[in-house]
Design a protein that fits this description.
Length: about 300
């Protein structure tokens, strides 16, 4: 199965599972009176919406280039990551504000039995989905599935934290410290949101760098070392390079000023240099755009 086809299948399955988890979260949140569980359900609902958008992007990436989109659709992928991470960050921030408000108001009572049951089932399922998608993504290395993996891990951590918190609250109630239990739900929600918000923020920062066409430091270092070595081997007068990564697309331009001794170099010799650059960069395929230009006039750099 092709990587893109497998990517779409995984995202479709993830979307269906996320919708189910979202419905369970909202339903059990209402039954137990837990804002933390409702947050978990809303988190999954937003994640489902973003997953459907990611699925649409994978279909676009599979299409051939067109007159209007001659460089393909790679630029859409980081835009989706920015949107996804931003929405999840806003949700975490909003939930944190509600949690603090709940603590200041003295908390509220909730039904721990429903909460514990929900947390056990959902945590186990989310960890399974996290493990399954991570195993598949080791082969296809999709950024979209990578983001989905983070979402499943976040959901699993939320549910696990809920399980621990509700179990502690249930124990406190049995030990005669029931006056503390109203603070458990908003307290857990506050801690969860503070712990989770760095993950979507990290995704946003990385994706914005791609949207702004910021060259990854490791790619710049690799190209600089390569061109320095080629200059030693061929005696290039000057050279310049431009590179960036957008989604799964890699764009590299190399401009070389040839020495006088190579002024009449044949196409075969120049193609050998191109091939050496291509092999050094790697990632050969439809997602890589490589341009190597030769000149004797430094004005064209």
């Amino acid at each position: 199965m092709k990587g893109t086809d497998l990517e779409q299948r995984i995202l479709r399955q993830s979307l269906l599972c996320t919708v189910l988890i979202a419905a369970l979260g909202i339903a059990f949140g209402i039954l137990s009176g837990s804002l933390a569980i409702i947050f978990d359900g809303m988190f999954s609902a937003l994640d489902a919406a973003m997953c459907s958008l990611s699925l649409l992007v994978t279909r676009l990436l599979k299409q051939e280039t067109s007159r209007r989109f001659q460089h393909g659709f790679w630029h859409i992928e980081p835009l989706v990551l920015v949107l996804n991470g931003s929405v999840l960050s806003v949700l975490c921030f909003y939930a944190f504000i509600n949690a603090v408000k709940g603590l200041l108001e003295g908390g509220h009572e909730l039904e721990f039995g429903w909460g514990i049951f929900y947390a056990v089932v959902v945590a186990a399922f989310c960890f399974f989905m996290f493990w399954r998608e991570r195993r598949v993504n080791r082969v296809i290395e999709s950024e979209l599935i990578g983001l989905d993996i983070k979402s499943w891990l976040m959901s699993a951590c939320i549910s696990s934290a809920l399980l621990v918190a509700f179990s502690v609250a249930w124990l406190l109630e049995r030990l005669g410290h029931g006056h503390l239990t109203p603070f458990i739900d908003p307290g857990v929600l506050a801690v969860l949101t503070l712990a989770l918000i760095p993950m979507p923020l990290g995704t946003v920062i990385a994706a914005v760098k791609e949207v702004l066409l910021i060259t990854p430091p490791e790619l710049e270092h690799e190209l600089r070392e390569l061109m320095q070595q080629l200059t030693v081997d061929y005696g290039f007068v000057r050279h310049s390079h431009y590179a960036t990564r957008v989604g799964r697309g890699l764009f590299v331009e190399v401009h070389i000023v040839l020495p006088e001794a190579m002024e009449h170099a044949g196409v075969r010799q120049l193609d050998q240099i191109r091939d050496r650059i291509s092999r050094a960069i790697g990632e050969s395929g439809p997602d890589r755009w490589l341009t190597v230009a030769f000149t004797r006039d430094p004005r064209w750099l």
